[in-house]
Amino acid sequence: MLFTGLASGSSIDMDKSFNYFASNIAFDNLINIINSRETQEEVAVRLLSQHLLLDGPDDRFISSKNYNELKNEIPQDIYKYVVKSSKTNTENEFSENYENGGVKSLPESINKIDYEQTVTNLMALMNSDNVNFVYSLLNFEHPVYSLETMSKVKSIRISNSDLVKISYEADDPAICQQTLAIFNEVCIRKYKDLKENGSDAVVKYFEAQLEKSQKNLTAIEERLLKFNQDNSIINYYEQSKAVAIVKEELEVEYSNKRADLAGSEASTRKLEQKLKIQELIQNKNDKILKNKKLLGDLQYKIVMMEAKSLESEERLNNLNSLKKEANNLEKEIESSVSQLYSFQNSVEGVPIKKVLPQWVDQIVETEDLKAKLNVMDTRNKEFEQKYANYAPAGANLKRIEREINVAEEEYLEILHGLNLAKLKYQDTQLSSNLKAVDPPYFPLKPMPSKRKLIIIAVLLVSFIMLLGVILVMEYFDNTLKNIDIAEEKLNIPAMGMLAKLFKSNSQIDLVSIQDRLMDIFMQNLNHTLKKQNTFNQPKVITIFSMQKDEGKTVIANNIARKLEQSGKTVLFLNHSNIEKQKNNKTKHSRLHKLLGYQDPRNDYSHPFLKTSTEETDGIDVKAYKVDKTFYNAKTFEDLNRNISAKIKQDSDFVIIELPNILEINYPADLMINTDIALLVCRSNRLWSKADESLLNNVKELTPSKLQFIINGVELNEVEALVGELVKERSKFRRRIKNILRLQFYSESHI
Question: How many CB atoms lie within 10 A of CB 540?
Fold first, then answer.
């Protein structure tokens, strides 16, 4: 008995709640491990190794009988896998001998190292192929080491407790105890290994994932450090904020300087415009002097022309032209002098000479502003470069920091899972620590035999099965069987039944039974004829059947004999193609004879089967042909024209046997004119749709004249008509029969 602690055992997890389904699954796992093929194989190999290492029979481990049988069965080449050293298994060296709760697993003469090595060798041999001796020993029907024998070890959970009971039955008490002891050791170790290996695998998984996550986190942090070094970042957010402020101030100052430069350049251009008038003044002076010289020349020409006394029209025209030209020059000189004055003084009335110093000062200031703007442009380009670096740096830095956050969360989550896995591993070690609270003991008293109970159970089951088979056969039996079933299926009245003719023994008189059945039939026949109040002479009885081999001829012969015995004259007409009675020879089953049943073979020597083909006083047997005359026959005279008038006149009864009407059409007019139409049916035949359809046609022709007789009925069905059959039975059998029929006082006299 093992204590598992699966349901109520202690646990490291303080918040762990009881789960009924999980507890049941854990118990199922343990029981399946105990019943597994691998466990059974190891137990069988360990038990075999233990016995092979023994120097001789030891009643603590194996009986002398089983040890000698083992020695005879084991081939010599198996002993090369057995490891045996001179070192013994002393109690000081191997205290594990009592590790199974006080059960000694190895004798002192066997070294545990040798034992384990032998087990390893035999296991390797067994797994090497499927034709070696160890594999065959385990997989065939060996009474000690086979897997079929090991599968008889039963393991059940005791009620709803934490205890599992393991039991085993064997014909050797030592083998029984050692098998359970080895099962105890193997299943505890296997269950513990499976539980701890599963939890240990989870711990190793989390440790591997934690190491991988830590390397990933370190790599991302190294990448962040290198990124800060490459971009000279100490504190990105403070640095980017300072750069933004300085850039904004620089942009304001740059805008102001650009405005000052624009004003200075405008003033300079104005002064330069004023300074450009000096050139105009020089040009004007040159032009005035030139015009003055031209005016002097013109005036000289005018004076010279006026001085001349020659007054011609041509001279006058030239003089007027010169005067006009001189007049225009004077006006131009006056205009130039006026412009010269305006050029020499500004609009504001400032002399041009005073504008020059202002222009020089303005030029100096403009150049100064340009130099400052050049410096500011350089600084702007530097800030633009910094901005170009800082803009993607922020996004990259944010991505790296996000990766670090994700890696940190992953690391912490895996670390949490590792802690839970280690906790689960410790909890598994506690829960897989199975203990043997009731070790297997050495049985001294064998278990009581269950042979009688098994025999009774087998007999009871056999009786129930036999009864079930009989009931099923009875339920699915669709034959006519007896009068009641036949009347229900045929839906016409019955005239009688006849028993099956088998070879009778001294216990039953089948001849008298068949005679009694024929008497009952004849009584019913006479009663039917009297009810019809027919005064026709002779009375016509038509006997027909649906199929062949129904027994028409035999029954017709016996009816004719019964009528002849009663003093009647009978004319028997049968068809010319009548088949002779088949003499089928069947063998008597030994089972019937052994069980005391009736011989099922037909008794062809029975007087009932005697035919009336011989000439008999009172019976005239005539044949007819199945031809056109037969199909058109209206009376029995039409069947055979050779019947003498004396026979027709003297006959009291005419029995007509028709062929089986399923194969040969019957004469309808003859059926109408008959007194009684008698259908012969075998009790063991099925009534088909074709039979029913044809019978309905006959019913329409002879609605009140049609009756049937069932042939070949079993004797147990005959008792329903003639009463209990007279048999020679012992007093004990009669009492048993009365008890089964609940007739306890049937033999008591009144």
Answer: 22
What residues have CB less than 8 Å from 435, skipping those under 6 apart?
A: 2, 3, 101
pLDDT tens digits, one per residue of 281-335: 667 777 777 877 787 777 777 777 766 655 667 777 777 887 788 788 777 777 7
Separation CA 324–CA 328 (nearest Å): 6
Q: Which two tokens stand for residue 660?
A: 């089986």
Q: Cα–Cα distance between 177 and 62 in angstroms, integer?
A: 10
Look up residue 482 and give its two tokens. 């007896």
Per-position b or e across 327-339, b if 16+ CB within 10 A of its CB: eebeeebeebeeb
Helix (H, G, I), strand (E, B) or coil at 625: coil
**What tokens appear for 173 in the block?**
């008490």
Distance CA 186, CA 174 (A): 18
The H or E element containing residue 38 is helix 37-52
pLDDT at residue 462, rounded to an integer: 92
* Signed CA dihedral, 546, 551, 555, 556: sign only: positive
Residue with tokens 């090991």: 150
Angle at 579 (CA atoms; ends 574, 521), nearest 5 degrees: 55
pLDDT band for position 427 (cuts 50, 70, 90): low
Task: Say which amino acid occupies 647.
Answer: I
Q: Where is pLDDT greater, at 543 or 206?
A: 543
| Omega of the bond leading into 538 within 30 degrees of 0 (cis) | yes
- Per DSSP bridges, beta strands 653-657 and 539-544 are parallel
Better-scored residue on pLDDT, 123 or 337: 123
DSSP state of 724: S
Strand partners, 706: 677
CA distances to 518, 541, 612, 620, 737 from 616, in Å? 19, 19, 7, 7, 45
Sign of CA dihedral 306, 310, 311, 316: negative
Query: How high is the pLDDT of residue 100?
Result: 47
Q: Which amino acid is at 261?
A: L
Q: Judging by beta carbons within 10 Å of its beta carbon (0-12, 13-18, 19+), is residue 117 exposed, middle or buried? A: middle
Taking CA atoms, 418 is separated from 192, 201, 207, 424, in Å, by: 21, 11, 7, 10
Condensed to tens digits (0 to 9), the pLDDT of residues 197-237 reads 666 677 788 888 888 888 888 888 888 888 777 776 767 66
> What is the chain's mean pLDDT, rounded?
77
CA angle 522, 528, 530 (to 5 degrees): 105
Q: How close are the terminal C-alpha atoms of the chain, in Å? A: 69
- Helix (H) or strand (E) segment spanning residue 657: strand 653-657
d(Cα 741, Cα 750) in Å, to the nearest integer? 20
What pLDDT sits at residue 476? 78
Q: What is the largest CA-CA distance in the chain?
A: 221
Which residue has better confidence, 425 or 1?
1
Q: What is the CA radius of gyration of the chain?
A: 70
The reported pTM is 0.43
Q: Which helix (DSSP H) or strand (DSSP E) does residue 212 occupy?
A: helix 173-230
Cα torsion angle, 605, 609, 613, 619, sign: positive
Is residue 659 within 8 A of residue 545, CB to CB? The reply is no
Q: How many Cα atoms sit within 13 Å of 450 on the Cβ side?
A: 5
| Average confidence (pLDDT) over 114-143 | 89
Using CA atoms, how far apart are residues 43 and 60, in angstroms rounded to an integer? 17
Give the dihedral sign, CA 348/350/355/361.
Answer: negative
Q: What is the pLDDT of residues 22-58, one digit of tens each?
A: 778 878 888 888 888 898 899 999 999 988 888 888 8
Measure the CA–CA gap between 335 and 329, rounded to whole angstroms: 10
> HSE of 575 in the Cβ direction (CA atoms, 13 Å)?
21
For 66-118, the pLDDT digits (tens) are 888 888 888 888 888 888 876 665 544 444 444 445 566 677 778 888 889 99
